[in-house]
């Protein structure tokens, strides 16, 4: 295969990724919880935010930490007082989102939503 | 620029066809990769045990396997575009129908039967068959790699947005969005209409055998049977990892986040591996790299189960197995075309893929069954190692030239 084929692949996959990223940026902005929202949510901070800074912001907003995600700047937060999402944003979060119903199952060649996969991490 | 190019509408030009075919692969694989997101919301909404929905998805995978040779026959006879369009309709109707499936048998019909057949008819193997006929032989393997890598990419692209829709607007909205996505395959298939095999005489250099006889001849060809046996192993190994790897990690104290990262890493490296395999396949013999992939998988599995399991070994294993994940596909499809040409490639690859899906079913089922019996996944890990060595060996005697019955006339 010559260089033109690889260039085509690079441009194709790059373009798909760019369009996807742009779409997701709009989508994420649109899907942020309204300021008055309460309950369980994901609090998302800037990636450079330290753990201490995030914890302080959550406490300031009156939220309780349910768990830390795999990323230091994303936390699962809970609070029944209305307006938690708005207070998190005021305290420095980029936004608050509903927790995703995702289990760590890969849909490869045999996409079975196996109960065992979810149960293993409960 | 030639006169022929000037006369060809833009939507029938090779670049458009390649892009459209790859986008079909992205959507086909992307939509089906999200069904795990619906386990919890659908089971909760209907107050079902999770096995009810899981069974429908298992059935879907079997139907995908059974449907692929049938879809291949239709594609070889009527052209890939029409089959992709019909598949898109079935796919969309099935996904949309999941919204109204309030009993196990109804879910089996929509998510299992309709979606399974829809996936088969609109799958990237049908796209690859069209590309295989459209691109010159020296670019064929590259095109197979590109289409396979696109499918891999689709898996990664759909999960997050669909998860967001399910989370924000409910699972019904998520299914509607997926049904609409599946319908997008219809306009994307239009450029492939240029490769319309119906009413056309067999291409120069291709066999004149009727389809039934071609299938019978293929099953009497030793190298084809070896390929079928080898691809069974691919299905077994990957399906076992797909379903049983996360709980295996959990058992060894690996966190959910690392398990997630591992699965994501598999998906990303899969894109690189599939594309690279297409390039390697275009450079010469295909059976040697194919054999090497299976042997490398066996070696990786062995190392992973013998070494202490940690975050580092988990992520390293995920990256390495990701590179080897769908990298078998371009080489396997390539060998089918080398042995039998392009006229019946979709049909004959379809039967090879059926073997893959049977392996997948056994990998998942035995993984669970033997775990329940022995209280450990180790027996199936070792079984995967042995099968990897077996596949590595059986690919070596494959003869990479046109089967006699398929010689050009």
CATH class of the largest domain in chain A: Alpha Beta
Strand percent estimate of chain B: under 5%
Helix content of chain B: over 70%
Low-confidence stretches of chain B: none
Instruction: Give the oligomer, counting copies of the same chain as homo and different chains as hetero.
Output: heterodimer
Distance between the termini of chain A: 48 Å
Radius of gyration of chain A: 19 Å
Run of helices and strands of chain B: HHHHHHHHHHHHHHHHHH
The low-pLDDT segments of chain A are 106-115
If helices are DSSP runs of H or I spanning 4 or more residues, what is the number of helices of chain A?
4
Main β-sheet, spatial strand arrangement of chain A:
2-3-1-4
CATH top level assignment of the largest domain in chain B: Mainly Alpha
Shape by Cα distribution of chain B: globular
* Strands of chain A, total number: 4
Number of domains of chain A: 2
Query: What is the CATH H-level superfamily of the largest domain in chain B?
Result: MFS general substrate transporter like domains
- Biggest sheet features of chain B: none
Mean of pLDDT of chain B: 89
Summing up helix and strand content along with how strands pair, one would put the structural category of chain A as alpha+beta
Number of DSSP strand runs of chain B: 0
